[in-house]
Amino acid sequence: MEQLHWVRHRCQHMMETNTERGWCRALHGQRIKSPLDSHRTPQRVPDRQRKVFACCGPQQHDYKAVSKNYKCNAICTTKYTLLTFLPMNLFQQFHRVANIYFLFLALLNWVPVVEAFEKEITMIPLVLVITVIAIKDALEDYRRYLFDKKVNNRVVQVFTSTTGAYTDQCWKDVRVGDFVRLSCNESIPADMLLLHSSDPDGVCYIETANLDGETNLKQKQVVSGLPLQQVECSPETFHSHIECENPHKDLRRFSGFIEHNSGVRVGLHSRNLLLRSCIIRNTEKVVGIVIYAGHETKAMLNNNGPRYKRSKLEKHLNTAILWCVLLLIIMCVMAATGHGLWLRNFRESLFSVDKDTSPAMAGFYLFWTMIIVLQVLIPISLYVSIEIVKLGQIYFIQNDLALYNEQTDSRIQCRTLNMTEDLGRIQYLFSDKTGTLTENKMVFRRCSIYGVEYPHKEQGRNERCSSNVLTDDITLVELGLMTSLLSPSTQDLGHGGGDKEVLPDPEILRKMNILCSPMLTRSVSDTSSCLELSYILDFFFALAICNTVVVSSASQPSHFVSTRYLQYNIKTVQYIKNSIIQRKGEKKKQYLHMYINFLYLFIFIPHHKVELLPVEGNYCKSEVYLNGDSDWTEMDVEDSLLEFASQHKNTDEQLYEAESPDEGALVHAARAYHCTLRGRSAERLMVDLPGIGPTSVQLLHILPFDPDRKRMSVVVRHPLTEQVVVYTKGADSVIMDLVEEPRGKEIHTCIRNQTQQHIDMYAREGLRTLCIAKKVLEKEEYETWLNKQLLAESSVENQQELLLDSAQRLETNLTLLGATGIVDRLQEDVPETIEALQRAGIRVWVVTGDKQETAINIAHACRLLNTNDQLLTANCASKDECAALLEDLKVKVKHESNISTDLPPVEKSSPSLQTSFILVIDGRTLDWALKKELSDVFLELSSSCKALICCRSTPLQKSQVVQLIRNQLDVMTLAVGDGANDVSMIQMADVGIGICGQEGMQAVMSSDFAISRFKHLGKLLFVHGHWCYFRLANMIHYFIYKNVMYVNLLFWYQFFCGFSGSVMTNSWVLICFNLIFTSVPPLIYGILDQDTPADTLMKHPELYQAGFTQSMFWITVLDAFYQSLVCFFLPYFALKGSDVGELAFGSPINASALLIILLHQVIESNTLTWIHMVVLVFSVGLYFGFVLLFSLFCVCCSPPTNPLGVEIRQMSEPVFYLICALTTVTALLPRFRLFNVFQGILSPDMFQSLIGMHESQQKMFFFTF
To answer: Does the predicted model carry a pTM greater than 0.85?
Structure first.
């Protein structure tokens, strides 16, 4: 009760002091005394709330006690320091199982009984890989350090109590409770509460592009209850303290209160908070107190670094590695068993070993020795190679001119580095509609007012619209007045080209023309006609003010129109009155009475008899009859009114910054009928009214749009009647339920029914619809609501819930004014893109918040819904009805599918005879279908349909649909959207794509890839996605192939050395063979290879799904086994019986293996460039140069063997080259014919498709790049 008394006192004081927006202000810093001060008790605040005290003044003791618990403003985004880099980086790198495996092998080689090589040699692969990654991490962290240093050392003006003035300090020295002064174009160093603005209305504008990517300016408001804004806030006299919520990530939510020294508390909101990293615009100077600093600011809490998603190919790679590990274990067990059997049978004759060691124990030791020898079977360099290849792929994707939008000067952005291959395996695509499939450039096309529908023609001609409706009876006065007031020229109709321009409807102009008719007196005596005209004027007035549009003009700074000189401009009415009264002449009395009524109808006084009284203060009051004698002449009146028209003609073009294209379209529509929004402040709007000119409208409250209410409202005080009026716009499904239907007034029911019919018609035409309504509040009703609103605004806990409840209480019993239909055209090539996606085997689902009829119309337009498709609609009123309907639809689809499978092959292959189902489901039914008990039925039904269209979907439902399909069907999903309501869907999908559209950059900043047009999905998926997946999959198989092939050479040798773990090559060549000599060509292949030309992939989307199966892995392994057999035994039989040593025997085997592995990739490559040739020659030259130098200078590099002179002697004999050539040809011969046959057997659809397209089979040899 005490809170209610306190609120009542504030409201009473508001009325007495004529303050605005219901706030109790302390003028010039003076304390406002309250009769409740003596007995009010402070409200206990939970400990989890934050208290902020000023750093200077009488609260310094409290400031020191509290602020020490808060973080400073210095930021540190680096991972390491000089001391922690080595241990932390090693710790992070050894989270990879492969690194732990090779560390284990390196340590194992230090055990004498299992030692295979020199201890240092086994460390080389691991040290090399870890060093490369560590250098990369160090460079990245150093760049972060430099950025942090630059930010922390920025200078800002902070108030210091020692000097009593603002001094320059670094950002890192700012603390919670400090007073900070900023100028125009300065960045905000911390989250600050706005206490002062140089703007007399207490507003400032910030640009949030650094925070959320949105370029349109946001308006912020000084905290209420502070001194007048003409005097700068003095920190030394600031005696208030602040209590607010603890730091969190939500950029749009902030709640708390500021308690003044008088005990009065004023609520705080997100519009009072200046966020770190934003930039002050169009405001000369602002002062704020720091609330959150450093890593507690919303900007830093939302800075989670680069997003990481694990690709499906990486998961398959891990499976392949596990198979390699199993193969390694089998080979080592076989060697260990063979070694034990060999020792037991041939121990005395072949080996000199410790007789105390049993064959079993010797076999156990040899198992670990073979693990070291065959370690190269596990490709340690593969992970690094994949990262390098992905960087190369991203480079070419980002520089593809086909993905560049010249109109917006934007190209594709790859925001996640490890998802390129997943673009080639998409199975389900979830798309938003508005801004994704459509342009999201809204144009006002139709409206329904008072139950009457008015179409608007598209922009296509330059003549004035009023010329189509003016008649010969219209006088010069009427022509001048109508030309200036009702038909703005094309240069005044908007900005940014023809898309925003609206041609006024002739029928509306005809009705307005009645006001200029000499028969007006009889016309307005009809209450119905008068009411219709008032509806029309109210409708466009609502369009002009029910928004959050920021206004600018060519003569003002960008995005800003000063409202410093806003006054109630009723002088225009007084001007006309004086112009008439000063004339004499009784005969023109009725003629001039017409204009007075005309002006009054335009200021929303729908009475047919009006007397214009002298202006009292700011308001024109009462209804009277025009009387008195006069002797005016017609020419005098014409001159006066033409002078009035010319004085109020708009000469300055208005520019509108709207948060959504819908708002911009509606404001431009209002402007077409000369109800023009000229400027706004936090508490006033300046609107040009027809016949009135610039008029100031007191803005009491804004109830912003939210997904739950699906509407927004403004509460204004009428400039003439002083009535409090609520104007609301929102979705028809919501507004229609809130419309009042008074008994005995059938006209309202008729208006509602007619408007609903028009809305349904608009939806069928694919237009976006909104309803416009109003409500006039009585004084007591408004005060009652205001009390609850003030309590909700000053609440710290549950503020959002309380504000939502307060808004819902206000938006009831509305009077329906009409509805709007806005066209949103499809983007270019959307139908072709969706058709290609479906041909590629990708299921395309549309998940939108629009009406069902609109979504179906768009589905038809973009070819998602064809003429032979059967539409299934699910609109249910209860959960039980939903369950029954889903079961019925599932049975129906299953029955039709069985019929289609029984068709003859000829009919089955004909698309025109196939039956496809499209499921259309609304948001309420979808909510029930996603419940646990119905999700299985819904999943089975939706997966049986060709496509799904979800209408009236919330952001949460969008993400739930994606999650259901991704998790339950285990398929690859892609989500694409352009707005903040698509973020959850984009983040839930395996691959998220944001479109740089008209609704900010939140979708882009949450995505893995960002494109500018929907049509770019075709090239991104069919070409780059296919190439990236094909390249990486082939590269992984190639790495496994070359490792298995080379390791088998060592394994076959064990059969001839008693399984002793000996090798026929020196350890340096063994370690460097896969790590260096054969590592570069796969990188070039993974970046540049093109299995199919881009034109063919775009022409035949069916090739998109041509991929690899698990059997391809085993074919690769078998091929490696075959080549290793040829590569080992051909030189063995060629040199059998000679006196060559083991190193001489291994020389042609190593050389042949190198040539086989490199030429194997040449055969596999579909695109060869001069880069491929250079890399191949370099790899061969590097190997032979290394072994020759090794043979020349290394005497004891590979004990116990001595490689000195071995390679030189072998390469000087012709038999060496003969063996290498014969071995290479024999090993690679099957690749020319047999491998393609195996491919056709294992993947016949893919094989037949490729064979059917001759151009895609042609090898592309380009020796110019």
So the answer is: no
